[in-house]
């Protein structure tokens, strides 16, 4: 590790943050003037329309950082890597923005574009390398890119949640990559953390603006690629595979929870709803900002465990992974028991117990 490189990471973070910080309130005014609003419905937690377009500030902040990095380091390999990453990310962001503005984009079309993004990442040389042949590598790359990209899209379900988790995950990737001498990966991760943090100022509860699909797809894609590009010198390969999974553990956990529960209750996994981990925490009485901060804390804890995991041998590393998976499975079952669905048997059983003790029921009995 070279000490002189860390100021560059701080500069990447600060520059990206500054652009997103300045642009977000300007885009808020544009969204209000043009009536680009997220209108409440039964699937959403907000009660009033909230402007979109915050994702444009996120994209602009990260893009400005990439342009600055390209101006400083004009090596062809760096320019190609930055251009490929930014180009694919912009395609996904534009697709998300079109969906934000017009709505109605086919889920099949979105999936095809995301699969294309995964193929492009593999073709650029940044794909997975699980040492099982190129076919397996390209399939793993596509699954990871599509999965993490959509996981952040799904995680964007409560004020400040997706942006905050993205900022913390970017910080963890920056630390791990920096400690392993991956200068470009660390700088890119710092840029992701910066643009997400700059936007978060106006997105934390109660949110004045949302990032929309343009921002969530862009952040999810960038973090998916950073996880693929992470190279851990001296870490056993079987252990290294779990490091990015830990860093992105909260969106992976949330996506697993809602997919499993929607299928169990006869709902489409593609259907929106107020059944995410954050919603379940609020359902049991935890205030929105506290629920979001609990998921922030989980991201920080998993990030530090990922830093530790990158330093362990095979036996110790697999024991740590087993511990995290055990705790995660327990929490998955615990949150799954929260009766958020109308057709949930737990909900009906709970109401049968609670309703006789409601004040209205007691008044009827007394009358």
Can you describe what's shown?
The protein is mostly helical. The chain has 16 helices and two strands. The protein has one domain. A two-stranded antiparallel ribbon has the order 1-2. The C terminus is likely disordered.
Q: State the secondary-structure class.
A: mainly alpha
Rounded average pLDDT: 88
Shape: globular
The tally of strands reads 2
Helix segment count?
16
Radius of gyration: 21 Å
Order of helices and strands: HEEHHHHHHHHHHHHHHH
Largest sheet: 2 strands, antiparallel
Helix content: over 70%
Sequence-ordered SSE layout with sheet pairings:
Layout: H1 6-34, E1 37-38, E2 50-51, H2 54-72, H3 76-102, H4 107-123, H5 134-155, H6 161-179, H7 183-200, H8 212-229, H9 237-240, H10 243-247, H11 249-264, H12 277-283, H13 288-309, H14 314-336, H15 345-354, H16 359-366
Antiparallel strand pairs: 1-2
């Amino acid at each position: 590790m070279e000490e002189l490189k860390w100021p560059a990471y701080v500069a990447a973070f600060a520059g990206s943050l500054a652009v997103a910080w300045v642009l977000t309130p300007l885009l808020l005014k544009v969204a209000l003037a043009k009536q680009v609003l997220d209108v409440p419905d039964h699937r959403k937690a907000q009660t009033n329309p909230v402007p979109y377009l915050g994702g444009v500030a996120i994209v602009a902040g990260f893009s400005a950082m990439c342009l600055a990095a390209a101006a400083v380091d004009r090596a062809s390999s760096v320019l190609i890597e930055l251009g490929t990453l930014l180009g694919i990310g912009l395609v996904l962001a534009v697709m998300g923005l079109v969906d934000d503005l017009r709505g109605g984009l086919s889920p099949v079309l979105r999936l095809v574009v995301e699969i294309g993004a995964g193929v492009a990442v593999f073709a650029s040389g940044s794909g997975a390398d699980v040492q099982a042949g190129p076919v397996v590598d390209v399939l793993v790359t596509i699954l990871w890119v599509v999965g993490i990209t959509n996981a952040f899209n799904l995680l964007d379900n409560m004020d400040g949640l997706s942006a905050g988790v993205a900022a913390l995950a970017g910080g963890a990737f920056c630390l791990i990559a920096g400690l392993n001498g991956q200068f470009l990966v660390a700088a890119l991760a710092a840029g992701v953390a910066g643009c997400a943090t700059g936007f978060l100022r106006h997105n934390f509860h109660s949110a004045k603006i949302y990032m929309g699909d343009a921002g969530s797809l862009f952040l999810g894609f960038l973090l998916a690629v950073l996880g693929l590009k992470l190279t851990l010198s001296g870490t056993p390969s079987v252990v290294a595979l779990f490091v990015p999974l830990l860093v992105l553990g909260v969106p992976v956990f949330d996506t697993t929870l809602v997919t499993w529960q929607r299928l169990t209750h006869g709902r489409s996994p593609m259907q929106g709803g107020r059944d995410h981990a954050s919603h379940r925490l609020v359902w049991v009485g935890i205030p929105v900002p506290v629920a979001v901060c609990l998921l922030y804390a989980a991201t920080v804890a998993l990030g530090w465990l990922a830093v530790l995991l990158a330093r362990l041998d095979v036996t110790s590393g697999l024991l740590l992974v087993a511990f995290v998976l055990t705790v995660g499975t327990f929490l998955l079952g615990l949150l799954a028991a929260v009766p958020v669905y109308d057709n949930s048997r737990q909900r009906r059983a709970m109401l049968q117990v609670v309703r006789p003790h409601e004040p209205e029921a007691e008044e009827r009995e007394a009358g």
